[in-house]
Amino acid sequence: MELQKTTFENQNGIGVITMTYEANLNALDVTMATEVLYHLNQCDEDPAVKVVLLAHSGKAFSAGGDITFMYKKLQSGEQLGGGKSELSILVGQLTLTIKKMKKLVISCVGGVAAGAGTNLALSADFVFASEKARFIQSFAGVGLVPDTGGSFLLSRILGSQKALELCVTARPVKADEAKTLGLVYAVYPPEELAQNVMEFAAKLAKGPLLSYENIKKQNFYANFRDYEDYLNNCELETLAICGGSEDFREGLAAFVEKREPNFQGK
Fold first, then answer.
1. Angle at which helices 236-243 and 86-100 cross, to 10°
2. How confident is the model over 215-253, as pLDDT tens digits?
3. What DSSP string runs through 230-253?
4. Is 6 exposed, middle or buried (0-12, 13-18, 19+ CB in 10 A)?
5. Residues in CB range of 168: below 8 A, 6 or more apart
């Protein structure tokens, strides 16, 4: 595959996938999602890869959906939403793949993770964060619903009420709160993050990999057996409804135009 927005390197058994499209804050468009999914599948089948690290270059882990791109489509008169889009399907496959794959996955969040970017990070088995990291379920702010498994993942980690709060309010969660809530495994100063993540990954890579694989399989069976059903029969449907709404069009426009949205509930 010709890579445009990611790189991959095997560092002594640690498969490092790096999102590198800093121009749009590593937004999860079709190209980015396709490349990350490709790397994940390759890592899972490659015996030389013992553990997977999902990282990023630039100041943001991922800004989620490319709002500016969607706004330009809106301005050109193109219809948005109203169906199960390729991107909606892809981001669901991303998070499901991370949960089902044999290898342990670590995400390293050095800055803002918003929308789909937050849920991609939280899909990992271990989440490391910089003190500067922020996690934002930003969907409701533009009249949308969480994708990339957000509502499901948060409900499993936090319980239904806290998950609902974060999705409805779309408030930023700082790294220290994220650790307290159990969303994040460890938090470090920015200059210490990379070294600590690599040390932890190296330790896992030398561990009992068959045991890890089967612990992860047990964890999936105990907690995520209905995840694929949720993605296919709830998340995609609700995304299609809200993605085709007037509120979503207004939310996009307000975000780009830097004003308060005037939602109408339709």
1. 150
2. 999 999 999 999 999 999 999 999 999 988 999 989 988
3. HIIIIIHHHHHHHHTSHHHHHHHH
4. buried
5. 140
Identify the three-state secondary structure at position 158. Answer: helix
Q: Taking residues 82-91, what's their average pLDDT? A: 81
Write the burial class of residue 156 (CB in 10 Å: 0-12 exposed, 13-18 middle, 19+ buried). Answer: middle
Residue type at position 135: F
Do 128 and 106 touch, CB atoms closer than 8 A?
Answer: yes
Q: Which of 2, 129, 108, 126 lies closest to 56, judged by CA?
A: 108
110/167 Cα distance (integer angstroms): 22
Residues with Cβ within 8 Å of residue 143, at least 6 apart in sequence: 242, 245, 247, 248, 249, 250, 251, 261, 263
Q: How far is CA 212 from the centre of its chain?
A: 22
Can you spell out the DSSP letters for 91-126? HHHHHHHHHHSSSEEEEEE-SEEETHHHHHHHTSSE
Nearest to 70 by CA among 82, 60, 80: 80
